[in-house]
Amino acid sequence: MMVFIWVCLILIVLSMVGVLYRVFRGPSVPDRLISLDSIGVMLISTIALLSILFDTPFFIDVILLIAIMSFIGTVSFSKFIERGEIIERERNR
Q: Chief location of this protein (predicted)?
């Protein structure tokens, strides 16, 4: 069981390196946004595997915090790409 967890951790880290390449060399901004979201998912899965490996439930709070921050960041960047602004304000005419 431990060997399987270590193999999964190594594969996740290798795929994270590949996704980091896409963040820096992405052909477009939406591709970079998807890459950042993928890094968040990979980070969550890495922390979950480490939680299993160390046999502790304390990392669950960290996983929830990273998931919430990743979701908010993805929504904010998507809205900025779509509309050019994150917070819409009413303009007085």
A: membrane
